[in-house]
Amino acid sequence: MNIKNLMMWGIIALLVLGLFNLFQNPNNTSSRDLPFSTFITEVDKGNVTSVDIRGSEVSGTFSNGTRFKTYSPNYPELVQKLTDKGVAITAGPSEDGMPSFFGVLLSWFPMLLLIGVWIFFMRQMQGGKGGAMGFGKSKAKLMNEVKGRVTFKDVAGVEEAKEELEEVVEFLKDPRKYQRLGGKIPKGALLVGPPGTGKTLIARAVAGEANVPFFTISGSDFVEMFVGVGASRVRDMFEQGKKNSPCIIFIDEIDAVGRSRGAGLGGGNDEREQTLNQLLVEMDGFETNDGVILIAATNRPDVLDPALLRPGRFDRQVIVPRPDIIGREAILKVHAKKIQTGPDVDLRTIARGTPGFSGADLANIINESALLAARKNKRIVTMIDVEEAKDKIMMGAERRSKVITEDDKKLTAYHEAGHAIIGLNVKIKNIKMHKATIIPRGMAGGMVMWLPEKDEDYQSKDQFEGMIAMAMGGRVAEEKIFGKDKVTTGAGGGGSSDIGKVTQIAKDMVTKYGMSEELGPIAYGDNEEEVFLGRSITKNQSMSEETVQKIDKEVKRIVFEGYQKAQKIMEDKIDDLHKLAKALMDYETLTFDEISNILYKDTYPTRHSDKPDQNQGSGKKESALGSIGLKPKLT
Q1: What kind and span of H or E run contains 119?
Q2: Residue 292 CA from chain centroid, whole number
Q3: What is the pLDDT of residues 584-610, one digit of tens each?
Q4: Which of 40, 366, 477, 609 could be bridged to 335 by S-S, CB 3.0 to 4.6 A?
């Protein structure tokens, strides 16, 4: 039991004792008040046996044992009268001294209770730091990682960022090496990158490598409901840094306090702006903070105040991007060391199949694979587990328990086969089919998964056109097999659907990338609508109605050309469509090699069919789309 609990129980015990002392009657007899005249009458009658005189207060006992008390005025003959009647008299000074401790405690209890409640709420609002009057104290925590220390060996996939920060670490270890040439220690480094790329991890690695005091705080910890608190905390934080110089101060999510002053439709926040002003002064003001290096992280550099970004405050901006294929493989190796993997686990294949994944996403894949293997009571994690974890994260968990009819299963098989056939024949550069499935995953009724053979920074016009044709393959297959009157909502239903995707691709080609001969190499993307406070507002009204109509016309032309291209390929490859759709209905999931063997060699997989036993009833695997009457999206 900690000290706080002991103190609380002690206070409760004191209060109980005080209440007991207050209400306890030592003599267990009642005492009644008498008028003084009645008291004199009873004395004359001889009914009083004893009295106790304490100043002007008189108490005593009647002959029948009843106790009484009264107040005596200035009556000089009282003692003589009592003596004549044979009354036993005791006397003493009046009880006008200090009240008992318990009496004082009980009388002040309501006030103490109010003060205690006020202190409790103040501590809650301040996060419990520094007591009720510690509003202006910094909430930065001094990190001392004896166990679980992170170094640059634990950071992978961001080599350029590591090189930038390694120089800061070397400066902290041996500043004279740089000062001999007149160089100054950098005052700040801003880590910029998407969420999950490892900005905080790199900052922890800097602390682990430099072996200097490392203070960490969040940007939101500066701003409170009290005016001036944030600025006071900034001052206190840098005071702590000076006392522990050389040291590193890490501010996570600095955009919470470093936003541009006076920006936004609602005006600036005075408290936040005061905090930012104090931060600017502390970083590069009249006073020097030698040996105090500030490292901050944000994924919103566009909203930061320009004064914060200038050299002298943040001398360098370190970009922490999403890793490429080599970086992804290195990150997977770092996290794979923490689990038991089998010899068949090929992290290069996983890295190739996860373009655009951040470090946090890759760590999640490794963790999910370990959980899946444990669920299956395995002792090691195999490649099947890692692949399943990757597919689960990318496409959603399989919904094998969903029940569908054979008609819906056939529709899904032809829809996905249509995507696959068109994709195999448009030959999109550097993209290879990975697998096709009609097992529902997430919100999708089925899926054809494509993987890039290498990371690409640029995409060409013919790639976009091939992607549009491939996305329309499912719609074209439905029309070809079931007729235009039987087309379903599988290709529609929102921005994540086939039609939504091709529309967005075509719009980007026209308005962003200048890939339209009609409109030319001009960007029209500034006339987009944004939502603010529930209302739709327009950023730029520079486009004329005529230009908007031309954009719509070009978008429609590009989409319909892709649609017609898919129709032409489908007419030529109708036999392949039937062949692949039948195989999907039999096996439910096919890899690229299996699809190639089926289409070009008439060789079918030797594995057992994933098709469920029709005698199992309607519960398990009759098929995969849904018994609630709503068709899921087909992708």
Answers
A1: helix 101-125
A2: 29
A3: 988 888 888 889 889 888 888 876 544
A4: 366
Residues 6+ apart with CB under 8 A from 389: 365, 366, 368, 369, 371, 372
Q: How far apart are CA 140 and CA 252, in angstroms?
A: 11
Q: What is the chain's alpha carbon radius of gyration, rounded to the nearest angstrom? A: 41
Q: How far, in Å, CA of 435 to CA of 17, rounded?
A: 77
Q: Which two tokens stand for residue 614?
A: 């029709």
Strand, coil or helix: what is 90?
Answer: strand
Separation of alpha carbons 483 and 422, rounded Å: 19
On average, the pLDDT of the chain sits at 76
Place of tokens 């373009």: 355
From CA 582, how far away is CA 357, in angstroms rounded? 34
- DSSP letters, 13-74, are HHHHHHHHHHH--TT---EEE--HHHHHHHHHHT-EEEEEEETTEEEEEETTS-EEEEE--S
Q: How many CA atoms lie within 13 A of 409 on its CB side?
A: 22
pLDDT at 103: 63
Question: Residues near 310 by Cβ (< 8 Å), separated by ≥ 6?
Answer: none
- Residue 577 CA to residue 418 CA, distance in Å, equals 6
Contact indicator for 327, 156 with CB cutoff of 8 Å: yes
The token duo for 283 is 């970083």
The amino acid at 314: F
Average pLDDT over residues 346-351: 88
d(CA 532, CA 264): 11
DSSP annotation of 127 reads: T
- Distance of alpha carbon 468 from alpha carbon 464, whole angstroms: 6
Please calculate the CA angle 101-104-109 and round it to the nearest 5 degrees.
Answer: 120
- For position 535, what pLDDT does the model report? 42
Q: How far apart are CA 72 and CA 81, in angstroms?
A: 13
Which pair of tokens denotes residue 43?
């004395």
User: At 132, is the pLDDT very low, low, confident or very high (cuts 50, 70, 90)?
Assistant: very low
Arithmetic mean of pLDDT, 246-257: 84
At 263, the pLDDT band (50, 70, 90 cuts) reads low
Cα 160 to Cα 293: distance, rounded to the nearest angstrom: 20
Q: Do the Cβ atoms of 431 and 452 come closer than 8 Å?
A: yes
pLDDT grade for 99, boundaries at 50, 70 and 90 = low
pLDDT, tens only, 134-191: 444 555 566 555 555 777 887 888 888 888 888 778 877 777 777 777 777 777 888 9
Residue type, 35: P
According to the 3-state scheme, what is the secondary structure of 284-348?
CCCCCCCCEEEEEEECCHHHECHHHHCCCCCCEEEECCCCCHHHHHHHHHHHHCCCCECCCCCHH
Mean pLDDT of 298-313: 86
Are the CB atoms for 468 and 562 separated by under 8 Å?
yes
**Is beta strand 48-54 parallel, antiparallel or unpaired with respect to 57-62?**
antiparallel
Q: What is the pLDDT of residue 275?
A: 81
pLDDT of residue 153: 81
Cross-strand bridge partners of residue 296 = 190, 251
